[in-house]
Amino acid sequence: MIRQMLARLMAGRYGGDQLNIFLIVGYLILHTIFLLTRWIVLDAVALTLLLITLFRAFSRRLERRREENARFLRLTRPIQRWFHSLRTRAGDREHRYFKCPNCGQQMRVPRGKGRITVHCRSCGATFEEKS
User: Minimal CA–CA distance to 127: which of 110, 111, 113, 107?
Assistant: First the structure.
């Protein structure tokens, strides 16, 4: 019964996406800090984030909300890549990672081969590193 009521309420509305999740997490963090410090400004900003999240979730302008989420994802993609790279490197004990001094391209070489000459596939630069 409650499930059907919620389904009827949300019919034709946007719902949730990655930007809404980010806003909710921001709200929770700011509200927790407010509870510890009692800075009214933090609570006002946190409440604003919550209201924006609710506005976006109940919005009927689906295309506009999709565009907002796409912009958010484009802005956060470099950060997501950095965290993914960090996690990959932390789990990879068999390789060393280097950046090309010429173009900045990431390269992976096997560990334990001593001093090796590394060739960049992007720019053709050659440099020596210890693996």
Answer: 107
Q: Which two tokens mark 25?
A: 């997490």
Question: What does each C-alpha distance from 58 to 10, 12, 15, 131 come to in angstroms?
Answer: 7, 9, 6, 54
Q: Where are the alpha helices (DSSP H) in the chain?
A: 2-10, 18-37, 40-58, 62-91
CA dist 2 and 6 (Å) reads: 6
**44-65 average pLDDT score:** 98
50: nearest Cα among 23, 21, 15, 16 = 23
Q: Is the confidence at residue 131, as pLDDT, over 90? A: no
